[in-house]
Fold each of these.
Amino acid sequence: MNTVHIAAFDLNLLLAFEALAAERNVTRAARRVGLSQSALSHALRRLRAHFGDELFQPTPRGMVPTARAQALFVPLAEALRIVRETVEAPRPFDPSALTRNFTISTVDYAELVLLPRLQARLARLAPGVTVTVRQPVGDQGRELLSGEHDLALGLWPSEQDDLRSQALFSDRFVSVLRAGHPDAKKRLTLARYVRLSHVLVSPQGSGESIVDAVLRTLGRTRHIALRLPHFLIAPLVIAETDYVLTAPERVLHALGTLRPFAVHRPPVEVPDFSISQRWHVRNDLEPGHQWLRAQLAEVARESKR
């Protein structure tokens, strides 16, 4: 066989070869690919000339493949399979057949609110899907751009080129005391609020929250008795102390069944906030990624405020 550029080779000849390999009969092979018997015979002559081999030899038992033809069966069948899958209309998406891992970047707040329900849905609808959750380190946008993470959940101060986002839910801040706290049944005034010792959830272990910024505009400060990197432990600390925690309300919905709490509106105006999911534009139309985003959106709609 002489070396030939692919552009000079009639790829339809491969379909004729496939039909002959399956049928071992020129008439049936011609019918299989929608050609006349003479056209199929002409295709076979071209194949023989190209490969420098008889490929299929007529016998009383039908067309018997040569050793060269047998060597071509597997690689040509695989090549045609790939071509068909590439050019044919995509099959309907079936989450139950999806087998892959998704990496999600988020802090424990979104984990508490969304992941238990999300995993319940995945276990039921897509048991072949696994999820890896990672704490964001540095710029979440960079991790999406690099492909290190599939999705990021959080607050987004601004849009970024090549990234898409979808708002999932809004939340508000509440102030929480243990049910037996001396001030549990009293109105939480500003004076009483700043007199208490506070728990602050700060993933980086430093800095202030928006509550501190609002208090500063009023000429007030508060005493932070404990800084924690995660929300999960904070309600348990509140249940054992006379501290107060100001945190997103959905954290209490997720953890409030552990202990009884007294929940108050903060005595300062703390703005509500929204949590969004963010992804790279390259995944906009990827079926598995689209499906996962839809599941997160549905879980967010189902979750109670």
Amino acid sequence: MREYSANEMLSKLISFDTTSWKTNLELIEFVTEYLQGFGVSSQVFYNEDKTKANLLVSIGPKDIPGIMLSGHTDVVPVTAQNWSSDPFDMYAKDGRLYGRGTCDMKGFIACVLAKVSKFVAADLKEPVHIALSYDEEIGCTGVMSLVEHVRAMKVKPRACIVGEPTNMKVVNSHKGIFHLLTRVYGLAAHSSTDLGLNTVTYASKMINYLDELAEEMKSRLPVNEGFDPPYTTIHVGRIKGGTAANITPEYCEFEWDFRPIPDRDDVQDEVLERFQVYVKDYILPDMERRDKKSARVETDILSHVPSLLPESGSTAETLVLALANQNDVHVVSYGTEAGIFQATGGVPTVVCGPGSILQAHKPDEYIAQSELDSCDEFLGRLLSVIKKSGSK
């Protein structure tokens, strides 16, 4: 099997259009065949209809705690974005590598896969686990089958490194994400009769309550330093209701999220709990006074990404600080699969990867060549740490 440089591997990975609503199987099949060329077998975890898959690879000795290197294979859409060139055909210019996913986060995956031949050739004293997931960009919903497998391992990894773009800074904490959909059911009528139950009106009351709650969150003193913004955010991003101006809308829905600051477990879902109490105590009684039969409010959690909680002095933090030649840890406001590996998988986890989050999700997304080089050097230092003395 031919060896790829990190740049060559990244170009290959970018050529697979793994936008979240599409399959990632072509990429997974390529990686599986690539690994087989080095005698490395893969475990593949398919979704229910077998259109997408997670992949887990272990290189080195068994039954010994090792290091997990994790990344997601899906990318955000390019629809309606004005790109200067084909987003799935990587090109280099002025020290930058352009293409959808170069930064978020195929750059990290490319560096890891380019290192496989060296991991295989070395006499490792502990294993390297490579974990690739799907559907991270739509709420980290795809990784669970892989995480459940990790949780069930007799000997779990001692550290997990999620390679989201952090400019190779060590991140030990990030906010969580609750992504929700609220549906409001009422009664249609001609607007002149005032006999309907207007779901748009009641949805607006609930949205106004969320806005007041958001202002309250802003006024609280930060519980953890470093977050920008330094409070739990609440955001309503979409609303849909009604069919005509003279028909009382019988249905309305709005999609919203909140991103809690990492803190005690009992306050992570405070926003949702208070919202539900408000609906139960104020909204529903008022709706039912007008039409008890039709009145209904339902809120579903579309996805939940747990916060990554700081674990000062953990095996992951200590290892990655040393590999990155850094003394300080950082926090970020975006969510990652790291919180899931920590909370569900039971593995000490940090985030550290090449590229800047400021370039993610944008047209003409790019990663600096220097960032890719830094990640390659980082993985080289990891290899030095986990191979036995004297091995080549």
Amino acid sequence: MASPPLVPVLVGPTGVGKTAVAVELARLRPVTVISADARQVYRRLDVGTAKPPPEVRVRVPHLGIDLIEPGERYSAGRFARDAAVWLAEVRAAGREPLVVGGTGFYVRALAEGLFREPALDPQSRERLRVWAARLAPARAADWAARLDRGFAGGGRQRATRAIEVALLTGRALSWWQREARATGAMRPWYIHLTLPRDALRRRIAERVDRMLAAGLVAEVEALLAQGVAPEAPGLDGIGYREVVAMVRGDLPADALPEAIAVATRRFAKRQETWFRNQLRAQTSDVRRQREVWTLDATESPGTLAATICERWHTVAADV
């Protein structure tokens, strides 16, 4: 059987500058971006998810954005199935796929394959979901971590999933993902963008200021006015949940910027830990382990893109 195609995967914590580098890469190669971002799948959640603006998407094709409405659920498994189709379509059109994102579970599902999900009793599953929905997000995460030592966080939806798989199968979700995995749709060449902590902290603060200036609060208020539930999937993400808390009167308006920045920094730290450890730990294949390339993102996006493009030729030639 032929090996899956080699595909560059640009990863890194939120705020590191992945989108800017991808846009610059598109000036040098016929790139179509496949977004591996669990928040950008939601329509009408634009400001708080830092989607590329429409004028950028006209110039650089993007897939994986604006797929579902807030309130719907979208899993890593569904992403992997959809993205496998997108990969084939991009190549058939004579373009080059570039996977870009900070959602490690999405990247892993696409690169390493889907696990063969065990059968779960529908009635028991629904009862667990109703029970988990009554838990505060932090309490749901605590339950998930107790039941699955491999649970890495990620919001109520992911916590609920970890709880139901552990309780209904007797084994942790991380075990199923590790032990019952099928073949991935691609062979990843990971390009891991990193920043010193202080530099990333500054970028996150600037990013929060830009989002608030661009109308993040108005975006959330409009969604709530349109009937989207405050606890809906999508609105439980960083930035959105803090604005919801402010709208409800649970968070003072003057505390909003720092609350979002603190939550973002914590999330970025978890992402960085995941990428630093999991990308190399996913497989014992030595060659694949060498396909993780770490770059200092203090360089300009144009410089980084040129560096990546130069190496791209070498990596592609070795396949």
Amino acid sequence: MSQFSNFIEGKITLGGFAASILNTLSTLKNRWKSILVLMLIGGLIGGVWGHLHPEKFQARMLIAVEDDDSNGWQNLLSQFGIDVGGNNPGGIFKGESLVRLFKTRSRVEDMLLQEVHFEDGKTQTLAQRLLDHSKLRKKTVFTDIQLLPDRSVYTPLQDSLLYELYEEVVGTVLFSDKPERKLSLIEVVCTHEDKFLAKAMTEKLVERTSKFYIDVLTKKTKANLDVLQKEADSVLIILNESMNASAASSDLNVNPNRATLLIGQNRALVDLQISVSLYGEIIKNLKLAEIGLRKQTPIIQIADEPIFPLPRAGNPLWAWILIGMGCAFIFSILFFSLIPVEEHKPLT
């Protein structure tokens, strides 16, 4: 480099600069064994790094979430005395909070406890499959532990292991974000060396989180709908009893000159008319509540889903070895070409 600077500044001639290059090449030729040793060391370092950071697969899913803030249908139902709440009431799970929902402990652990039939023929929970590929399996305390779908029978040790797997998923496996802040699109990505596990985790996480999201937003409406349904069933029973009573009173052979004997028949007829009117109003409100429930239920559309072959993340082992050898080769050339010739010390 110093000779090149001298050539640029005009301190040496072109012939002198060429002679210095030939001298450097001659020096490197004499040090080829040292360079080869450094390249082998670099390849070994690259191989170790590649073993610790294996190539992984990315299972990516893009979902579109309906974001409807219209309140016209709520005003219509409120005229009939029905309060079904709003779509996404109180603004919960909106924007960044919906993205964060995918990384909550309850959602991730619920996903891990799902039993899946993998495409390689195995049937096991996602937590068990993840544990088989995790460093946690090497710990003596976790050697023989099995993670089954039923969380209610878990021991404190199993709960601790499930929490450790949750930390691993959130820290190194799962990624969720909104690619475009102005759009209602959410990207969920799981990256793992096991392509079947990465794909299954992405699909199950979106499935379970979507179900939870819909259940929360429609909980109040479903409760009101259940109340109306119970009232309709109760009034229907009363209506049937009134119809039976009215029919029974009509079958009696009543003396028309005895008006007092018609009181029971008229009472049964009045009860029947009231029951019919009440049942009609409840059925109308019930149908309106069903419309409100369908309106409030958000639509989660899958815009893109993971399909084999999955895109790869990282480099294979052989690539890391070549990178290590290349870096060592460049370093050795710089090292032997920059130090003065008299200071060259053979490495072998």
